[in-house]
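Sample log: DUF465 domain-containing protein.
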Amino acid sequence: MTDEDERELGAELAKLQQEHRDLDAAIDALHHSPAPDLLRLQRLKKRKLSLRDRIAFIEDQITPDIIA
């Protein structure tokens, strides 16, 4: 992997982590609303899980495998 690839992955990782935190806040706010929209809540949670998977994939790409 080149330095440029690693920088691009790092930038994408930071963007995805920020979106994940934003979704976490939105889900928390929706939970505390008087009448939460359950369908919207489910969609936000699904998107958050998708982001978590993508974040884990990128972190695996950036972190080299260490063979002990």
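Observation: Residues 37 and 61 are 36 Å apart (CA to CA).
Observation: The radius of gyration is 16 Å.
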